[in-house]
Fold each of these.
Amino acid sequence: MNLRKLLALWALFAGVWRWGRGNPVALLLALAGLGGWYGYEALYVRPQMAYLGLPQATRWADPMTWTRVFRNQGYLAGYSELRGDPLWVIYALSAPPADAPHLKRLNRFIADGRSLTRIGHDDYDKSGYDRGHMAPNHAISLLYGRAGQRDTFLMTNIVPQTAALNERVWERLEEMELDRLAPRLGKLWVVTGPVFEGGTERLKSAFRVEVPDACYKIYAAQGADGAPRFLAVVVPQTVRGNESLDRFVVTVDEVERRTGFDFFPGLDPKLEPAAEGKIDPVFWQVGEWAAVAGRYGDRKGKFTGRE
């Protein structure tokens, strides 16, 4: 457990102590309840929703990498109160049921009452940026129903994205992972979030929200031999939107270096150099989907594929 989590737990238990010191029985019951809840969350539920462990900050002394973990229907979010963005989001995909209902998209995003920043829908108005889902609305709604869809509209699942990134490249990636990778692989784990590099830019409409320079996705699955396989992409905010997706493929090591997170801390160190340090386009069949247009077409002009 890192320092920030210890400090948070200490503050929590200190508050309970002050409340219950006049009643030892109540205090013991409260402490047992809190300990049981935290153990259930940290040791059982959250690990079930992640592949090879939850992401761990490699620069633990840097407060800009500190996260609060929020468990939602269908995904986990590691949220930064200082940046006003989730630094990582984890979800798992499989082929959706054939009769899964296609739910109508929500009209507004939702402030997350668990966060301190309380970013709301209107904070992005006239900012010049889209509200970019990390856990995708469409896939989560198909797999987890109305409750899952609602949770994807929590602002703790959102980062600022340019229209070209959000409505074109990101949309194509979300369609590819649901329509092609998940059905073929059986189960697909996705870790996704923002990349912050260089100077600091914040929304002109809400200073609490930092604007990332790029966004990443890491796909994880097991090969036929049981070994973990990974594919990573990093997409800059400056994309035009009609680029071939293979242009953005990188190693997991590069994403970890640029974000300051170890995304799969449970990975066998002997497997790490080959799994995280190399690109495997054959296993992921990158050539079959990299230049495919989005399901809904290009919103800003005809998709041109490879350039």
Note: The first helix runs from residue 3 to 20.
Amino acid sequence: MATIIQRRRAVSINPLKSSAPLGAALAYLGIDGSIPLLHGSQGCTSFALVLLVRHFKETIPLQTTAMEEVATILGGSGNMEEALLNLTRRVKPRFIGIASTALVETRGEDYAGDLKLIMDRQPELAHTRVVFASTPDYAGALEDGWARAVSAVISSIVLPWSPAVTPFRQVNILPGVHQTPADIEALKDMVESFGLYPVVLPDLSGSLDGHVADAWIPTTMGGARLEEIEQMARATHTIAIGEHMRAPAELLGSLTGVPLTVFPTLTGLAPCDRLVALLSRLSGNAVPGRYRRERSQLVDAMLDGHFHFGGRKIAIGADPDLLCALSHFFAGMGAEIVAAVASTGNSPSLDAIPAETVIIGDLTDLEDAAREHGAEVLVTHSHGRQGAHRLDIPLMRVGFPIFDRLGTAHMLSVGYRGTRDLIFRVANLFMGQMHDHVPADFADVLPAPIVEESSHVSPPATH
């Protein structure tokens, strides 16, 4: 069991975590026809919007209640009501997800109660589903905001079980915030290949997968449909990924009675075997031949790649569940986790990380620990590039945000194929750092060339 170390600093020098409101907004973006609304100042929303646009390279329909000094002191329910009415009249979204920020939470108003009063007295909002999640910046990070937003959607939209619910060959999937659109697409494809119907909440594979629509619309294009979210009670099972999704999954189970399974990770041979076995049992079908072949390819990739992983010293900084997944992946391939830094301590998964210590800190802590233990690669998001440069080691970009590389939405790391591709990605990173030797490299170790003395004697000089 890892020892958890909580750093106590007056200031974060180089932040690792992203805020909880940003995580909630990201979750709301996985719902079709939605607009996330941050209840706070324009600056809070602008900063989140910049990160989302740079990460996904897509248009992001993020809005704000634009709190200013007077509203902050006297109360912000009027700003919330005005924002909801403006969005409904101009954009006509099907869903508006509200996430609070530290600015309004510090005042301690009952915004959930205010929202209920607003909905009761404004008939214009009758055809728009509005959900509120409490996500102050000072409580948690990206994972926490994502999970709270999903819980808010479940409690507000999912219909509870009743005798009238018709069972269906449906599987609910609650992905973690660290799953990319490509990961979610692969999970949906896997469920469908067993003859089951996947309902994903939130579904970024439909809204932020990088497609070009026929016409511009001011809301999200694709994602989980409200009609399917309402009918999650008809599923035979719920699959959640990551410990931060356990609370939403248990909430869904209490409402619907649907049994659930929480996977700490779906990267690696053993977790993939568990998932395939579960889907086979739920469907009553044999495992398709394609997965038997993909599993064989993964085993071969592990054999090929372990030469490049064995004994390598790895430093990882990420949100807890992503940190846990990557740590087990590297340790399973024979590498050593010499530095593990988590963005927040609000997760039981930190105890299971295969490292001596886990630091709750920032990128400065990660850089210091990597330097102290001689790490050979830095694993974190794009804000770690300066630290990797100072350490003179390669940076493997993971998590959020990744803004200096293309194709982030299509990076796959779940399932047999995703794990195989991740092995090749890391092994190629190590191989790219290998030095191609030239003769000059051996100048100090090769013996000096032997010069033979000539037997020819020069004739005496004549004058």
Note: Residues 289-309 form the longest helix (21 residues).
Amino acid sequence: MRSRVLTWHQVSRLDTQDVPRTLGLFHPVWEDADPADLGRADEQTARGNFRTWAKITSHVCAARGRDPGAGVDRDAIDQACARLGPYS
């Protein structure tokens, strides 16, 4: 039972224009990402859901771990989003 989360925090949906700034504050992997690419991924996949963005971040970081020199471009974001499956 120690691994259970006892407190859940409700986070309202992010506005599309807030996504780049919020993600840059959330994790350094997003600091240099193109805001247009983030907006596109938010519109098509995350839909302002911060939990979904956390999953995308995890997949991007895992991919960068396999190739640390890789940047976070549209292709990297698309690959991370594709790993979420149909029920993100």
Note: The mean pLDDT is 89.
